[in-house]
């Protein structure tokens, strides 16, 4: 009978899985029926990769049995928990569709989800949040504001913002919001950027659509951003890999008996170079896809070491109630490299989100860079990310963080503690600036440099400021 159960094979989101123990209360001994306890025990013994014995699972409670496995990815879900879990992987939530960031104590709309209630109501990225249902948001954290804005589907919330010097009010209905799983943009010089946030049930189709759109616009090289992508469905990683691999395998997959069942790929090849951005939040299906494309020489990984989750789960219905998510297999790369608790090592190691993006852009053949910073966001050639505290205006003069200045000017930043000087080096030329200099502001331990001075030092760097509280830096390629 159990061989006929309908299961879903998953490389589940590592970060999400770890958070579930806090966000959701699993069914324990006090809530589960004896039938559920017995059936879960039987399923764990039958499916879990560690082959647990009845002695190991002797505790009478479901939660205790799962804890005994020492496996953070095996869990029991009630129907409501399963729905929430599915919604998270598929990027579906109840809300109004805004992304917030905080800059110098002010909370801004860092982004507005396309076609969301907030988008349709007229809210815009860069709006400064003032109030929610008449309650002022000043001095509150983003977490506190999220609680203020939360509510049941179908209800309405009054969002007050400041846009420039004008205060505006928007009545926005809370509805089911589908976050975009895949987004793309041409960054310039023929470099395409494709961001994938989750290996959701339709990630393969969404990725392919964005890829074809970029190709139709004349893309000559591709950056795939998988930073913070914790995984999802195995078959979606397989579909995406087949867009780049004509014939091969995605990974070797072994079950509890050590039997290898390779995941085969029969797709197409592409002629342009590919660069994949990864970090410590890149896990599971992200590692499955990235490891294969790296080993086949199709893509170079840029960023930092990945999370290291090389096991696969299945969702198995519990006939007496609920669903069991259980680890059933481990995978290795096509070349046999272990991923679980090891991770993938980038071809080019770069720390810092902006530095990683610009490094990939340069490697992909990118030229001029346009970087706009302020009002809670940092926009690089149209790619928008959250930012906090990178720009200050004082007495009519704009200052940018020394770290951002170094990235924008493509110089190397250091600090001479003995001389108490900020040091910027480029092309063998060294520029020194005392921390007490009038061209420097130090705030909360962060140094900011007069953007006029940076532009004077570095011929490739020009700038412009506008009245909305943002500064745009132009880095002209040599």
Description:
By secondary structure, the chain is α+β, with helices and mostly antiparallel strands. It contains twelve helices and 33 strands. The strands form eight sheets. Strands 1, 2, 14, 15, 16, 19 and 20 form a seven-stranded antiparallel beta sheet that branches. It has a six-stranded mixed beta sheet with strand order 11-12-13-17-18-21, sandwiched between helices. A five-stranded antiparallel beta sheet has the order 24-23-22-33-32, covered by helices on one side. Strand 6 (128-132) and strand 7 (135-136) form a beta hairpin. Helix 7 (203-216) runs parallel beside helix 8 (234-241) and helix 8 (234-241) packs parallel to helix 9.
Taking the sheet with the most strands, its summary is: 7 strands, antiparallel
Compute the average pLDDT.
Answer: 90
Q: Measured on Cα atoms, how large is the radius of gyration? A: 25 Å
Estimated share of beta-strand residues? 35-45%
Structural class: alpha+beta
* Number of strand segments: 33
């Amino acid at each position: 009978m159990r061989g006929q159960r309908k299961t879903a094979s998953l490389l589940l989101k590592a970060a999400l899985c770890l958070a579930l123990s806090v966000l959701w209360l699993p069914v324990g001994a006090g809530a589960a029926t004896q039938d559920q306890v017995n059936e879960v025990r039987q399923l764990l013994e039958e499916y879990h990769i560690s082959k647990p014995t009845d002695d190991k699972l002797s505790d009478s409670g479901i939660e205790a049995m799962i804890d005994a496995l020492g496996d953070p990815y095996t869990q029991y879900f009630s129907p409501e928990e399963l729905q929430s879990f599915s919604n998270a992987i598929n990027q579906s939530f109840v809300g109004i569709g805004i992304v917030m960031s905080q800059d110098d104590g002010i909370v801004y709309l860092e982004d507005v989800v396309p076609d969301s209630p907030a988008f349709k109501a007229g809210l815009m990225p860069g709006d400064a949040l003032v109030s929610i249902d008449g309650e002022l948001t000043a001095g509150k954290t983003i977490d506190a504001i999220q609680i203020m804005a939360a509510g049941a589907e179908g209800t309405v919330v009054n969002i007050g913002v400041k846009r420039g010097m004008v205060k505006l009010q928007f009545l926005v209905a809370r509805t089911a919001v589908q976050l975009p799983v895949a987004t793309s943009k041409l960054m310039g010089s023929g470099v395409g950027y494709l961001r994938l946030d989750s290996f959701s049930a339709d990630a393969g189709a969404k990725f392919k659509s964005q890829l074809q759109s970029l190709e139709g616009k004349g893309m000559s090289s591709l950056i795939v951003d998988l930073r913070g992508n914790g995984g999802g469905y195995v078959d979606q990683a397989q579909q995406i890999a087949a867009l780049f691999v004509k014939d091969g395998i995605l990974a070797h997959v072994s079950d509890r008996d050590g039997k290898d069942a390779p995941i085969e790929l029969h797709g197409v090849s592409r002629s342009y170079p590919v660069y994949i951005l990864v970090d410590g939040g890149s896990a599971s299906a992200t590692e499955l896809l990235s490891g294969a494309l790296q080993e086949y020489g199709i893509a170079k990984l840029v960023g930092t070491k990945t999370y290291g989750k090389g096991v696969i789960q299945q969702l198995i219905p519990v006939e007496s109630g609920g669903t069991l998510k259980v680890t059933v297999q481990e995978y290795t790369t096509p070349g046999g490299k272990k991923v679980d608790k090891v991770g993938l090592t980038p071809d080019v190691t770069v720390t810092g989100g902006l530095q990683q993006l610009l490094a990939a852009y340069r490697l992909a053949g990118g030229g001029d860079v346009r970087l706009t910073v302020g009002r809670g966001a940092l926009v690089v050639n149209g790619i928008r990310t959250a930012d906090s505290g990178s720009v200050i205006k004082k007495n009519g003069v704009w200052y940018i963080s020394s770290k951002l200045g170094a990235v924008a000017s493509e110089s190397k930043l250091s600090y001479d503690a003995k001389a108490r000087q900020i040091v910027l080096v480029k092309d063998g030329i060294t520029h020194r600036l005392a921390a007490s200099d009038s061209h420097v502001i130090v705030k909360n331990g962060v140094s900011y440099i007069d953007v006029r001075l940076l532009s004077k030092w570095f011929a490739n760097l020009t700038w412009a400021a506008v009245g909305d509280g943002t500064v745009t830096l132009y880095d002209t390629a040599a």
